[in-house]
Amino acid sequence: MPVSLLFVIGSPRSGTTLLERMLDAHPAVQGGPEPHLLTPLAHLGVWNQVDKAPYDHVLAAESQKLFVSKLPNGEEDYWKACRAYCNVLYGQYMAGSAARLCLDKTPAYALILPFVAKVFPDANYVVLTRHPAAIFASYANSFFGGDYAAAQAYNPILNRYAPALAAFLRQDAVPFIHVRYEDLVADPASGFRAICDHLGIPFEESAIAYGASRRTDEGGLGDPIGVNQHDRPTTASVDKWARELAADPAKRDFVRGIVDSLDPADLATLGYPPESLWAPLEAAGGATQPKPPRLSWYRIQRKLIVGLRGQAQRRPLFRKALQRARLVCDVLLRE
Fold it and tell me: Are 293 and 299 in contact (CB under 8 A)?
């Protein structure tokens, strides 16, 4: 049986883990770790570019497109098959649960939203946005020790996610609710009530205090850095980025350069119009630099991942060694 899906959509560092914890504390919702089911499925060959796929992607794409064109209902049969694949996995995950909604909070889905909407046009979508400077500052501090240039070189997170999210917010093919992070933490009761109303589930005020509920997952890729420091939404980090940038002109100019390169229409759609975008920074004045974040196992894991990928990009021999190890593993797995 198909399950009722709930996708929480947002970029990394935008507060999606906080919202997932709140929703998971609701008896009608079952959350958990980020499954990343749809990201690889999106690159099987029909939907979009597959140049990152680890097989002969050009041949696979052309072959699948020809095959799909011969099906009785064309691409609609393909979307149905993708939907069936996910429904089996989501359905098994929900087996034995009394919850009505299966929550999937995978930030990378924001980059494949046209595909997700094709496969699940009837799913529930909650889009969470956050001030772009806050996202970037949190990203750089969490995984790059405050090295803004290294963070942007590794993954231009705002340039990738802002246009994708704005495009989804402008479409009307699938319904959604749009919530700003700053509004949610400032008035969690109103924000959560609006989300519950949109989902057609009763408002559960107790779910706002997510820390009182036992998590359904242990581990996973969800970000526990900030959300584990509190047991309910807090405004503690809302203007943290502004204080940091106000105290460091180099970082301020760097972030402003990135944000200024974004489409003003996209920023307005996300809820952060250019004319008021920098008001928190101006209000911060001559703020002092915030304390550096404490090291945690989550940060150590991410630093290792970033470091290994960086080595592979900078050192051809290291990259070849990784590729050879991967090839050997592929051969062994074939056996």
Answer: yes
